[in-house]
Write a structure and sequence with these properties.
The protein is an alpha+beta fold. 28% of the residues lie in helices and 22% in strands. The chain has six helices and ten strands; from the N terminus they run H-E-E-E-E-H-E-H-E-H-E-E-E-E-H-H. Helix 1 (11-33) crosses helix 5. It starts with 10 loop residues before the first helix and ends with a helix.
């Protein structure tokens, strides 16, 4: 299913869709995509200007860091993701190095290993909200949590190259720029001593590609974005499906 022109609907309508998308992603990840020692769970931040997230956890909560079982859905970095751009952080301030050793835990006691952020208009409508979003992703990565960001909204004055590119500004010196005619962007951030990131750029009307979300520094699963997007859209109200199916959607 092609990506729709979401700015045609208000933020509240999109919020309802992406809650359904998070549910579909969680279902897919928990039913065959993730290794058996991992599970996905939806969470909501207290600040309603920060996106809901899909959180991946590893079991057991204590002991050595978990390594996912190698299987048909788990790839290793020996075969890195084939995406449009790759960046490596060339700097690591000492104070941030220390922060990486803090441990983030889920309320269940299971260790958080990754987050998926689906961007909403409220995340990029002002300079403050953009800075808050970028800082939240940076904090997660510095604390050994891998993060994928899906931004299906066009650039704004506060995020002229999309939110994934704005997040990367907090890590690296090499900028990420949107290619002409491809205003939508995906970014996945790998929590390493020198963080890395991979980017893909899309346009309305294209289909979402499989996109990596890392579970460890060297292993990742491909998020089934296209299938879950289509399932969530099929469950949307008829008026929304009809509106976005009209010419120019």
């Amino acid at each position: 299913m092609p990506i729709h022109d979401w700015p045609r609907v208000d933020a509240g309508v999109f919020h309802g869709f992406y809650l359904g998308w998070i549910a579909e992603l969680s279902k897919a990840l928990n039913n065959g995509v993730l290794p058996p020692t991992y599970y996905a769970d939806a969470e909501q931040h207290a600040d309603d200007r920060i996106a809901d997230v899909l959180t991946l956890h590893a079991s057991p909560p204590r002991g050595p860091k978990p390594v996912p079982a190698v299987g048909p859905n788990t790839a290793v970095l020996d075969a890195p993701p084939k995406l449009s751009a790759h960046r490596t952080d060339g700097r690591m301030p000492k104070e941030r190095q220390k922060r990486r050793h803090l441990v983030i835990r889920h309320v269940s006691g299971h260790r958080v290993v990754a987050l998926l952020e689906l961007v909403s208009p409220a995340n990029k409508d002002r300079r403050l909200t953009v800075a808050q979003f970028a800082a939240k992703v940076e904090e997660a990565v510095r604390n050994e949590v891998h993060v994928a960001v899906v931004d299906l909204f066009p650039p704004t004055p506060s995020a002229p190259h999309g939110l994934p590119a704005r997040v990367w500004r907090r890590f690296g010196r090499s900028p990420v720029l949107l290619p002409a005619g491809r205003p939508l962007s995906l970014g996945t951030f790998v929590a390493k001593p020198k963080p890395e990131a991979y980017f893909e750029f899309l346009a309305v009307g294209e289909e979402l590609p499989p996109f990596p979300l890392f579970l460890t520094e060297t292993q990742y699963v491909n998020l089934p974005l296209a299938d879950t997007y289509a399932a969530a859209f099929a469950g949307s109200p008829p008026y929304l499906r009809e509106l976005l199916a009209q010419p120019g959607a």
